Amino acid sequence: MYGYIIRRVLATIPVMVVVGIFVFLLLHLTPGDPAAVIAGDYASPADIARIRAKLGLDLPIYIQFGKWVWALSQGDLGISIFSNLPVAQLIGQRLEPTLMLSLATIIIAIAIAVPLGVIAAWRAGTVVDRFTMLFAVLGFSVPIFVIGYALMYVFAIKLGWFPVQGYVPLAKGFWPFLQSITLPSVALAMLYTALIARITRASVLEVLTEDYIRTARAKGLTSTAVLMRHALKNAAVPIITIIGIGIALLIGGVVVTESVFNIPGLGRLTVDSILRRDYPIIQGIILVFAGVYVIVNLLVDISYTFFDPRIRY
Q: Could you give the C-alpha distances from 44 to 22, 40, 48, 81, 281, in angstroms and in order?
Protein backbone atom coordinates (compact mmCIF):
# COMPACT_ATOMS: atom_id res chain seq x y z
CA MET A 1 0.00 0.00 0.00
CA TYR A 2 2.73 2.47 0.96
CA GLY A 3 4.69 1.60 -2.16
CA TYR A 4 1.66 2.41 -4.30
CA ILE A 5 1.16 5.76 -2.55
CA ILE A 6 4.83 6.69 -2.95
CA ARG A 7 4.72 5.84 -6.67
CA ARG A 8 1.62 7.98 -7.15
CA VAL A 9 3.19 10.92 -5.30
CA LEU A 10 6.37 10.66 -7.39
CA ALA A 11 4.28 10.48 -10.58
CA THR A 12 2.89 13.96 -9.89
CA ILE A 13 6.35 15.54 -10.14
CA PRO A 14 6.82 15.20 -13.94
CA VAL A 15 3.22 16.35 -14.43
CA MET A 16 3.85 19.59 -12.55
CA VAL A 17 7.16 20.05 -14.39
CA VAL A 18 5.39 19.85 -17.75
CA VAL A 19 2.69 22.24 -16.52
CA GLY A 20 5.36 24.64 -15.26
CA ILE A 21 7.16 24.62 -18.62
CA PHE A 22 3.90 25.29 -20.45
CA VAL A 23 2.97 28.13 -18.12
CA PHE A 24 6.41 29.68 -18.54
CA LEU A 25 6.15 29.46 -22.34
CA LEU A 26 2.73 31.10 -22.24
CA LEU A 27 4.30 34.50 -22.82
CA HIS A 28 6.52 33.24 -25.62
CA LEU A 29 3.79 31.27 -27.40
CA THR A 30 1.62 34.37 -27.67
CA PRO A 31 1.51 35.67 -31.28
CA GLY A 32 3.53 38.85 -31.67
CA ASP A 33 5.48 40.70 -29.02
CA PRO A 34 3.79 40.19 -25.60
CA ALA A 35 5.11 43.55 -24.43
CA ALA A 36 3.54 45.30 -27.42
CA VAL A 37 0.23 43.48 -26.84
CA ILE A 38 0.20 44.52 -23.19
CA ALA A 39 1.21 48.11 -23.95
CA GLY A 40 -1.58 48.63 -26.48
CA ASP A 41 -1.80 50.15 -29.94
CA TYR A 42 -0.77 53.66 -28.95
CA ALA A 43 2.27 52.79 -26.84
CA SER A 44 5.64 54.32 -27.62
CA PRO A 45 8.79 52.22 -28.15
CA ALA A 46 9.95 53.38 -24.72
CA ASP A 47 6.78 52.02 -23.11
CA ILE A 48 7.23 48.68 -24.86
CA ALA A 49 10.88 48.52 -23.80
CA ARG A 50 9.89 49.27 -20.20
CA ILE A 51 7.34 46.44 -20.17
CA ARG A 52 9.85 44.05 -21.75
CA ALA A 53 12.36 44.90 -19.04
CA LYS A 54 9.72 44.51 -16.29
CA LEU A 55 8.76 41.07 -17.58
CA GLY A 56 12.39 40.10 -18.16
CA LEU A 57 11.76 39.46 -21.85
CA ASP A 58 15.03 41.18 -22.79
CA LEU A 59 17.02 38.33 -21.19
CA PRO A 60 17.90 34.98 -22.82
CA ILE A 61 15.09 32.47 -22.44
CA TYR A 62 17.08 30.03 -20.31
CA ILE A 63 17.93 32.82 -17.86
CA GLN A 64 14.27 33.84 -17.75
CA PHE A 65 13.26 30.24 -17.00
CA GLY A 66 15.88 29.87 -14.29
CA LYS A 67 14.84 33.09 -12.56
CA TRP A 68 11.18 32.12 -12.83
CA VAL A 69 11.75 28.67 -11.30
CA TRP A 70 13.87 30.17 -8.51
CA ALA A 71 11.12 32.68 -7.72
CA LEU A 72 8.51 29.89 -7.69
CA SER A 73 10.59 27.86 -5.25
CA GLN A 74 10.37 30.83 -2.86
CA GLY A 75 6.61 31.22 -3.33
CA ASP A 76 6.93 34.26 -5.60
CA LEU A 77 4.43 34.13 -8.48
CA GLY A 78 5.48 37.50 -9.83
CA ILE A 79 4.06 41.02 -9.84
CA SER A 80 0.85 42.11 -11.56
CA ILE A 81 1.51 44.42 -14.49
CA PHE A 82 -1.46 46.70 -13.89
CA SER A 83 -2.04 46.66 -10.12
CA ASN A 84 1.69 46.35 -9.30
CA LEU A 85 0.79 43.96 -6.45
CA PRO A 86 2.21 40.47 -5.84
CA VAL A 87 0.28 37.80 -7.73
CA ALA A 88 0.26 35.55 -4.66
CA GLN A 89 -1.43 38.32 -2.67
CA LEU A 90 -4.09 38.86 -5.35
CA ILE A 91 -4.79 35.12 -5.56
CA GLY A 92 -4.97 34.88 -1.76
CA GLN A 93 -7.55 37.68 -1.65
CA ARG A 94 -9.76 35.87 -4.18
CA LEU A 95 -9.26 32.34 -2.87
CA GLU A 96 -12.08 32.13 -0.29
CA PRO A 97 -15.06 32.74 -2.65
CA THR A 98 -13.79 30.19 -5.18
CA LEU A 99 -12.96 27.64 -2.49
CA MET A 100 -16.37 27.99 -0.81
CA LEU A 101 -18.19 27.85 -4.15
CA SER A 102 -16.30 24.70 -5.14
CA LEU A 103 -16.87 22.95 -1.81
CA ALA A 104 -20.57 23.80 -1.78
CA THR A 105 -20.89 22.57 -5.38
CA ILE A 106 -19.16 19.27 -4.63
CA ILE A 107 -21.30 18.67 -1.52
CA ILE A 108 -24.55 19.40 -3.37
CA ALA A 109 -23.57 17.33 -6.40
CA ILE A 110 -22.47 14.24 -4.48
CA ALA A 111 -25.41 14.41 -2.07
CA ILE A 112 -27.86 14.40 -4.99
CA ALA A 113 -26.05 12.43 -7.70
CA VAL A 114 -24.93 9.31 -5.83
CA PRO A 115 -28.35 8.42 -4.30
CA LEU A 116 -30.05 9.30 -7.58
CA GLY A 117 -27.68 7.09 -9.59
CA VAL A 118 -28.02 4.18 -7.15
CA ILE A 119 -31.82 4.35 -7.15
CA ALA A 120 -31.87 4.62 -10.97
CA ALA A 121 -29.72 1.49 -11.26
CA TRP A 122 -31.84 -0.36 -8.70
CA ARG A 123 -35.03 0.63 -10.55
CA ALA A 124 -33.61 0.32 -14.08
CA GLY A 125 -36.23 0.83 -16.76
CA THR A 126 -38.71 2.54 -14.44
CA VAL A 127 -39.83 6.17 -14.31
CA VAL A 128 -37.07 7.00 -11.82
CA ASP A 129 -34.45 5.65 -14.19
CA ARG A 130 -35.84 7.61 -17.14
CA PHE A 131 -36.01 10.77 -15.04
CA THR A 132 -32.36 10.34 -14.05
CA MET A 133 -31.27 9.92 -17.67
CA LEU A 134 -33.34 12.93 -18.72
CA PHE A 135 -31.77 14.97 -15.95
CA ALA A 136 -28.29 13.84 -17.05
CA VAL A 137 -28.95 14.85 -20.65
CA LEU A 138 -30.30 18.26 -19.61
CA GLY A 139 -27.37 18.79 -17.24
CA PHE A 140 -24.89 18.20 -20.04
CA SER A 141 -26.84 20.13 -22.67
CA VAL A 142 -27.85 23.37 -20.94
CA PRO A 143 -24.96 25.85 -20.49
CA ILE A 144 -24.12 26.91 -16.95
CA PHE A 145 -24.82 30.58 -17.60
CA VAL A 146 -28.35 29.75 -18.84
CA ILE A 147 -29.05 27.76 -15.66
CA GLY A 148 -27.56 30.58 -13.59
CA TYR A 149 -29.70 33.29 -15.17
CA ALA A 150 -32.83 31.12 -14.88
CA LEU A 151 -32.23 30.48 -11.17
CA MET A 152 -31.45 34.15 -10.65
CA TYR A 153 -34.69 35.23 -12.37
CA VAL A 154 -36.94 32.81 -10.45
CA PHE A 155 -35.45 32.69 -6.96
CA ALA A 156 -33.77 36.10 -6.71
CA ILE A 157 -35.83 38.49 -8.83
CA LYS A 158 -39.32 36.95 -8.67
CA LEU A 159 -39.34 35.27 -5.24
CA GLY A 160 -36.65 37.38 -3.56
CA TRP A 161 -35.31 34.44 -1.57
CA PHE A 162 -31.67 35.02 -2.47
CA PRO A 163 -29.54 38.01 -3.50
CA VAL A 164 -29.19 38.54 -7.24
CA GLN A 165 -25.39 38.78 -7.26
CA GLY A 166 -22.39 39.17 -4.99
CA TYR A 167 -20.69 37.21 -2.26
CA VAL A 168 -20.79 37.55 1.53
CA PRO A 169 -17.73 36.13 3.37
CA LEU A 170 -18.33 33.48 5.98
CA ALA A 171 -16.82 35.78 8.63
CA LYS A 172 -19.80 38.14 8.23
CA GLY A 173 -22.34 35.51 9.24
CA PHE A 174 -23.31 32.01 8.19
CA TRP A 175 -26.83 32.83 6.99
CA PRO A 176 -25.84 35.76 4.70
CA PHE A 177 -22.98 33.58 3.40
CA LEU A 178 -25.36 30.69 2.72
CA GLN A 179 -27.81 32.95 0.89
CA SER A 180 -25.08 34.36 -1.35
CA ILE A 181 -23.53 30.98 -2.20
CA THR A 182 -26.67 28.85 -2.75
CA LEU A 183 -27.73 29.93 -6.26
CA PRO A 184 -24.26 29.85 -7.85
CA SER A 185 -23.53 26.49 -6.18
CA VAL A 186 -26.77 24.95 -7.45
CA ALA A 187 -26.17 26.32 -10.95
CA LEU A 188 -22.64 24.95 -11.06
CA ALA A 189 -23.69 21.63 -9.48
CA MET A 190 -26.12 20.83 -12.30
CA LEU A 191 -23.40 19.73 -14.71
CA TYR A 192 -21.42 17.97 -11.99
CA THR A 193 -24.50 16.18 -10.67
CA ALA A 194 -25.50 14.97 -14.14
CA LEU A 195 -22.01 13.55 -14.73
CA ILE A 196 -21.76 11.74 -11.38
CA ALA A 197 -25.34 10.41 -11.52
CA ARG A 198 -24.80 8.93 -14.97
CA ILE A 199 -21.57 7.17 -14.02
CA THR A 200 -23.02 6.00 -10.68
CA ARG A 201 -25.98 4.42 -12.44
CA ALA A 202 -23.77 2.65 -14.97
CA SER A 203 -21.32 1.37 -12.33
CA VAL A 204 -23.98 0.15 -9.89
CA LEU A 205 -25.99 -1.41 -12.71
CA GLU A 206 -22.95 -3.42 -13.77
CA VAL A 207 -22.23 -4.54 -10.20
CA LEU A 208 -25.83 -5.65 -9.64
CA THR A 209 -25.34 -8.40 -12.23
CA GLU A 210 -22.49 -10.03 -10.27
CA ASP A 211 -22.84 -13.38 -8.54
CA TYR A 212 -22.14 -12.05 -5.04
CA ILE A 213 -25.15 -9.72 -5.35
CA ARG A 214 -27.40 -12.68 -6.10
CA THR A 215 -25.82 -14.51 -3.16
CA ALA A 216 -26.52 -11.57 -0.85
CA ARG A 217 -30.13 -11.49 -1.96
CA ALA A 218 -30.42 -15.25 -1.49
CA LYS A 219 -29.21 -14.83 2.11
CA GLY A 220 -32.22 -12.62 2.76
CA LEU A 221 -30.44 -9.28 3.07
CA THR A 222 -32.58 -6.19 2.69
CA SER A 223 -32.42 -4.06 -0.44
CA THR A 224 -30.69 -1.30 1.50
CA ALA A 225 -28.00 -3.65 2.76
CA VAL A 226 -27.42 -5.08 -0.72
CA LEU A 227 -27.13 -1.63 -2.26
CA MET A 228 -24.98 0.02 0.38
CA ARG A 229 -22.77 -2.82 1.67
CA HIS A 230 -22.23 -4.70 -1.57
CA ALA A 231 -23.24 -2.82 -4.73
CA LEU A 232 -22.20 0.75 -3.96
CA LYS A 233 -18.94 -0.18 -2.25
CA ASN A 234 -17.80 -2.32 -5.17
CA ALA A 235 -18.88 0.35 -7.67
CA ALA A 236 -17.08 3.11 -5.77
CA VAL A 237 -13.84 3.15 -7.79
CA PRO A 238 -15.41 4.43 -11.06
CA ILE A 239 -17.53 6.89 -9.09
CA ILE A 240 -14.53 8.27 -7.20
CA THR A 241 -12.64 8.48 -10.50
CA ILE A 242 -15.32 10.55 -12.19
CA ILE A 243 -15.53 12.84 -9.18
CA GLY A 244 -11.82 13.54 -9.53
CA ILE A 245 -12.04 14.02 -13.29
CA GLY A 246 -15.02 16.30 -12.80
CA ILE A 247 -12.80 18.75 -10.92
CA ALA A 248 -11.59 19.92 -14.34
CA LEU A 249 -15.18 20.71 -15.32
CA LEU A 250 -15.64 22.39 -11.96
CA ILE A 251 -12.64 24.66 -12.53
CA GLY A 252 -13.96 25.70 -15.92
CA GLY A 253 -17.46 26.21 -14.56
CA VAL A 254 -16.20 28.40 -11.73
CA VAL A 255 -14.99 30.98 -14.26
CA VAL A 256 -18.43 31.22 -15.89
CA THR A 257 -20.42 31.04 -12.65
CA GLU A 258 -18.42 33.75 -10.90
CA SER A 259 -18.85 36.02 -13.91
CA VAL A 260 -22.62 35.46 -13.99
CA PHE A 261 -23.13 35.98 -10.25
CA ASN A 262 -20.46 38.67 -9.86
CA ILE A 263 -18.47 36.69 -7.29
CA PRO A 264 -14.99 38.14 -6.66
CA GLY A 265 -13.13 34.84 -6.89
CA LEU A 266 -10.36 33.35 -8.98
CA GLY A 267 -12.72 32.89 -11.91
CA ARG A 268 -13.44 36.62 -12.12
CA LEU A 269 -9.76 37.34 -11.61
CA THR A 270 -8.96 35.04 -14.53
CA VAL A 271 -11.40 36.79 -16.87
CA ASP A 272 -10.21 40.26 -15.85
CA SER A 273 -6.56 39.25 -16.27
CA ILE A 274 -7.15 37.80 -19.73
CA LEU A 275 -8.97 40.94 -20.87
CA ARG A 276 -6.12 43.13 -19.58
CA ARG A 277 -3.34 40.78 -20.80
CA ASP A 278 -1.95 40.59 -17.27
CA TYR A 279 0.26 37.57 -17.96
CA PRO A 280 1.83 37.15 -14.48
CA ILE A 281 -1.64 36.73 -12.95
CA ILE A 282 -2.71 34.33 -15.71
CA GLN A 283 0.41 32.25 -15.15
CA GLY A 284 -0.12 32.18 -11.40
CA ILE A 285 -3.79 31.15 -11.67
CA ILE A 286 -2.99 28.38 -14.16
CA LEU A 287 -0.35 27.04 -11.78
CA VAL A 288 -2.79 27.11 -8.85
CA PHE A 289 -5.57 25.38 -10.81
CA ALA A 290 -3.17 22.78 -12.19
CA GLY A 291 -1.75 22.12 -8.72
CA VAL A 292 -5.23 21.67 -7.25
CA TYR A 293 -6.22 19.31 -10.05
CA VAL A 294 -3.07 17.19 -9.62
CA ILE A 295 -3.52 17.03 -5.83
CA VAL A 296 -7.18 16.05 -6.13
CA ASN A 297 -6.38 13.27 -8.59
CA LEU A 298 -3.57 12.10 -6.30
CA LEU A 299 -6.03 11.88 -3.40
CA VAL A 300 -8.48 10.03 -5.65
CA ASP A 301 -5.80 7.48 -6.60
CA ILE A 302 -4.86 6.99 -2.95
CA SER A 303 -8.52 6.53 -1.99
CA TYR A 304 -8.69 3.51 -4.32
CA THR A 305 -6.77 1.50 -1.76
CA PHE A 306 -9.62 1.87 0.73
CA PHE A 307 -12.30 0.65 -1.71
CA ASP A 308 -10.39 -2.06 -3.59
CA PRO A 309 -7.94 -4.10 -1.46
CA ARG A 310 -6.32 -5.52 -4.62
CA ILE A 311 -4.75 -2.13 -5.36
CA ARG A 312 -2.80 -2.25 -2.10
CA TYR A 313 -0.74 -5.12 -3.47
A: 30, 9, 6, 17, 24
